[in-house]
Amino acid sequence: MSTSDTTVFVVHYPPHRRRQSRDQPPEMRVVVLGWSVSENSLVGNFILGRAAFDSEAPPDVVERVAGRLKDRHVIVINSPQLLQTNISDHQITQTVRECVHLSDPGPHVIVLLLKHEPCSAEDQERVEKVLLSFSESVYQHTMVISTQEPTQTNHILQNIIQKCANRHFSLQTSSSPHDLLLTLEDIEKINDGQYLDCASVEKQASEKLSESEKLNLVVCGSDETLKSSISELILQQTDRRSDVELHGRQISLVELPALIQLSEEEVMRETHRCVSLCHPGVHVFIIIIPDAPLNNEDKAEIEEIQRIFSSRINKHIMILIKQNSEHQTAELNEETQSVIESFGGRHQFIGPKTQVSTLMEKIEQMLEGNRQEFFSTETFLEAQIEKLLKFEEMKKKIQSLETHVLSQGNEQKIILGS
């Protein structure tokens, strides 16, 4: 599977606001952007002074690690794929969202890790696109790091460094984390200790679309390639952005990784992440299945989605049936029909020439039926509490049954003994 077909995964403990006290060191949040997993890990580990990042981690993983350096509490958000030229605009937007979410309420410094070989005009364009996805004032908080001195002067590289107010740190064997920390703190001081406000670009976009309503969609399914193809199909018809205006609405699209491939901890983390990214909540979960009998993975994924999100998700689900040809199957097999009926019969065929507007019409009807309600983070947490209470209740029943069985066994022993 190519990089452009992958889904952004996140490995982290969700950020949380903490009250500052005199005993707590001041916090600094740093986002590291680059092309290479190994070099990004090298820089992240150098900042933290320990082996916190894996140099062999998948390139599409955004990771958040905290540590203490001198008298500072430092949080490093590592994103090693954002500057690669073979990832889509949709992936850029999603990954930037992850970085912003993990650096909540915003990063103090963005570290731009540039590759050794001479930069091209295409590289500069990619760097500028990624940085401006954070904020229009991003250069005030950005610095360039290189892991070795360039062998020749490159005007493109120099242009990028100049845009970052000539802030450039060369990571050599003689360098120390303390030297880099001083450079990071200088950037923080220039900005009066303020973090980068990453909401500015999104706010401007929302002002332009003030008359439209926001619609949050989450794409689900066991087949990652199938999900990516549907996402790309939607984005191709909407200027290839993850926040688009279509059918009079501002649409936000997020992909949910296949849950059956994750551990229980990862499942909880990824499902909560998806819902939290869709503020104030998810309007529609689109479950994508092929135009064929459901296989075991499809069934397991649908069951897992229902297990995690509970029955509260049912009214927010639309089944999307992917077809590889223009021909649309008039009849569904009994098993697929049963699954669709369990979600209120909401389904739509989508093929190579299907217009997204056709899908939107179905979704609009669905929203009217739901009175514009959404599946929020609060709804998600309530579902988890409900599951926990049911688990505790079942646990008590089992313990009560075990006690009853043991007491009966003891009574029989007494009778036999007498």
- What's the N-to-C terminus distance? 73 Å
Stretches with pLDDT under 50, minimum 5 residues? 1-22, 204-212, 238-242
Strand content: 15-25%
Summed up, the helix count is 12
Radius of gyration, whole Å: 25 Å
Helix % is 40-55%
Explain how this protein is built.
The protein is of the alpha/beta class. Helix content is 42%, strand content 18%. The chain has twelve helices and 13 strands. A seven-stranded mixed beta sheet has the order 1-3-4-2-5-6-7, sandwiched between helices. A six-stranded mixed beta sheet has the order 9-10-8-11-12-13, sandwiched between helices. The chain is globular and about 85 Å long. It starts with 8 loop residues before the first strand and ends with a helix.
Summary tags:
single chain; 418 residues; alpha/beta; 7-stranded mixed beta sheet; 6-stranded mixed beta sheet; globular; disordered N terminus
Q: Brief description of this entry?
A:
Residues 29-169, 227-390 form the AIG1-type G domain. The chain has 418 residues and is α/β, with parallel strands linked by helices. The chain is 42% helix and 18% strand.
